[in-house]
Amino acid sequence: MLMPRQVVPTLSVPTLAHGDFSLADDAAENFTLLVFYRGLHCPICLKYLLELSRLQADFEQRGVKLIAISSDSLERTQAMADKLKAPALRMGHSLPLAVARDWGLYISTSRGQTSIGIEEPALFSEPGVFIVRPDGTLYYGAVQTMPFARPHFDELLAALDFALAKNYPARGEYSGAV
Fold it and tell me: What is the pTM assigned to this prediction?
């Protein structure tokens, strides 16, 4: 389990149009927002990433860099990017499932074609959203076992405004006996 205020696992993935991404080298002013999505086969992911891209400038104004990442291949990620029509959004691909598991993401098996007629990969990770400080420590994390009920990006923006204004610490850091 990832712990707030502790260093997160190493993360490096290729992107479609922004070179190789390395979390250790991202150099965000305040935070890096990592949005792990299921892949091209997921219509909810498309809607979610459209909302992320709509709010990208708002995040960037707060010193937050964004990246959307999946275990999809380059070709499937490009197909998703073509649907998104958001070239400024960094789209990472080819996430190894072992790395997804290091991040605490759930792994699912294929159920064949989805409601939009696209075949699911044999294995893929379920969604997760993480906010990481420039020092590589976890500030916020949310993982889902299903494609729905994800954090809302407008609510995350408001939370980041509060956190930055009040220097609010990451919570959930206690790991001792209970």
Answer: 0.97
